[in-house]
Amino acid sequence: MRSVIITPSYAPDFERCKILCRSIENHVTSYEKHVIIVDAEDLALFQTIKGPKIEIITKESILPGWLKKIPFQRKWWLSYKTLPVRGWILQQITKLSVAECFDADLYLFADSDIMMIRPLDMSSFVNNRKVRLYRYSRKEQDYREPRHKAWYKYAGSLFELSGDEFLKSDYIGPLVTWEKDTLLKLNKYIKEKTGKNSWQETLCNTFDFSEYILYGIFTEFVLKDESGHYWDDTDICHTSFTYTINNFNDLQEFLKQLRPEHKAVCIQSNLKIEPQAYVDYIHKIIVK
User: Fold this and answer.
1) What is the DSSP code (8-state) at residue 32?
2) Which among 213, 183, 176 is positioned nearest to 199, based on CA atoms?
3) What is the β-pairing status of strands 175-179 and 106-110?
4) Long-range contacts, 128-131 (Cβ 8 Å, 24+)
5) Do 27 and 118 form a contact (C-beta atoms < 8 A)?
6) Residue 288 has what pLDDT?
7) Within the chain, which residues score under 70 in pLDDT?
8) Which of 20, 153, 202, 271 is the most exposed place for a label (fewest CB within 10 A)?
């Protein structure tokens, strides 16, 4: 199956994205290309890391023409069909657009603050022509978190689901695989269900949602066995999301919990830790 790696990024994450690119080149095999998606204003900067398997494109080139970036403003986009759209929403719509833009069977979404640390063959995500979908039990605190509640409420309403069975699983991660036909079916469902001219228009009018929750619930509870996925709860990326990291000592304690199944580590850029500091330390503890 043809595989493409997708990374949305932006200028403040440039150094981290360079680390991701190098680590993919060193550790990942059986993929066609690594596509980095940035705002047009960041294109020149990211073109400096373009390579034989690294393609740099702009959000503007894959989003509908009625969406325009507000100059000198990263957090908002102007829409000629909806209210102004937050950058967070636009990034999710960008991910949901990849099946209409890149001809591949499997998409691996890799956040730009990830570093690959062990060999990963993209064929390991495929079993009997079905693609791995990361699915795991929700944490108790997520049931109470307002934004998480809003994400599941919107998905339940969109897919006309009742009861609490669809509330039990989570699908969010920094290293997630999707399948092309399933994604195209999701976008078609949103368009037809809401009666808008496009699925993007529907989501631009949505105050808050999670692309991973929408995709996961649609796959599991709407398509069911007709989806192109199988489920797997193996955590292949050690991520800092749920850790308290205020200094380098905290970071070392976090990294001591790396397990053999971890193919990557995600150290969130908002922790403000200099990337080279953790790169050197990870090489020290991983490379023997």
Assistant:
1) S
2) 183
3) antiparallel
4) 128/230, 129/1, 129/228, 130/179, 130/228, 130/229, 130/230, 131/1, 131/105, 131/106, 131/177, 131/178, 131/179, 131/228, 131/229, 131/230
5) yes
6) 46
7) 287-288
8) 153
